[in-house]
Amino acid sequence: MIDILKECRGAKNIAITGHTNPDGDCIGSCMGLLLFMQKAFPEAKCTVLLERPDPSYGVILGIDKIRHEIPEGENYDLVIVLDSVVSRCGFASAVAQAPAKVINIDHHKSNPGEGDVSWVEPDAAACGQVLYKLMCATQEGKALMDRDIALALYIAIIHDTGVLQYSNTSPETLRIVADLVSFGFDFTTLIDKTFYENTYVQSQVLGRSLLEAFPLMDGQVMVSRMEQRTMDFYGAVKSDLSGIVSQLRIIKGVKIAIFIYEVGPQEHKVSLRSGSDLLDVSKVATYFGGGGHIRAAGCNINGNFYDVLNAVMEQVEKLLAEAAKAE
């Protein structure tokens, strides 16, 4: 295990970043580490570089300080990449270059470990879980833990575990969550506000996606799509599409869910979910240059919707055939 305080000591200008379309784990991890670093190194300048998070994460202290572009002329001597590889950090990928020291902390098994220092725990339920362990590995770090840091890490963990219901939730995960909630924040409200609560627009696009979903392979696969013109009609943005693929996955009989939406001309984002550890959808995502977990993964593919779906289904069919042999 790396000594995160030792690795960061001496840095004067620190950037913390994560993947594009940041989810709860990415946002909570970045903000939790920011608050931790500000306490540990008050003389250093610390900045989070991320795409704009959903307003529901406004409960996290300091989230309004996130920068959505690299400040002109800014040079960082330390860049910490969380919950991602460097290449998937969008606009912030540019800061992870020499002479900056790069630390990569993650839990995706598809991450080979990048940067000058890396720590990847593929068995961990969330990047927030990995961070908690690194922060509390020493007495110095443990003494810095407070309510606001704990709240951010709690959000990270509940979002990547489906509020502790996914199979990646381990006894260690539960012990860490128990310690985090002991700091006294209202964890039930946090779950409602950041995980379950939907806006009217989010409810509309979810309903539209379910209405237009269609089954493949005798109902083993459920597919839905969202075109840019449909998003424009509802006034929806990318963050409003979060959770749709999970709703497709829980339809009875579905083994793999696929949600595809436009992110640019002839470019689509593909989200994949599976209901079994035998169906490792990260293999499909990795094949197309993406990544993720056994049961939750994603990638971007160029082409029209039908080209993208046909390409993905070719890999999904192989995955289902392999799982059938293993059963």
Structure description:
The model has no long low-confidence stretch (mean pLDDT 95). The two termini are 36 Å apart. The chain folds into 2 domains: 4-196, inorganic pyrophosphatase (n-terminal core), CATH 3.90.1640.10; 200-326, Diaminopimelate Epimerase, Chain A, domain 1 (Roll), CATH 3.10.310.30. Strand 6 and strand 7 (221-226) form a beta hairpin. 39% of the residues lie in helices and 18% in strands. The strands form 2 sheets. The protein has a 6-stranded mixed β-sheet with strand order 6-7-8-9-11-10, with helices on both faces. It has a 5-stranded parallel β-sheet with strand order 2-1-3-4-5, covered by helices on one side. With 327 residues, the protein is of the alpha/beta class. The chain has 12 helices and 11 strands.
Keywords:
2 domains; Diaminopimelate Epimerase, Chain A, domain 1; six-stranded mixed β-sheet; globular; alpha/beta; inorganic pyrophosphatase (n-terminal core); 11 strands; five-stranded parallel β-sheet; 327 residues
What's the helix and strand layout?
Blueprint: H1 4-8, E1 13-17, H2 24-40, E2 45-49, E3 78-82, E4 101-106, E5 117-120, H3 127-135, H4 139-144, H5 147-160, H6 171-181, H7 187-196, H8 200-211, E6 214-216, E7 221-226, H9 228-234, H10 244-249, E8 256-264, E9 267-274, H11 281-287, E10 291-292, E11 296-302, H12 305-326
Helix pairs in contact: 2-3, 2-5, 3-5, 5-6, 5-7, 11-12
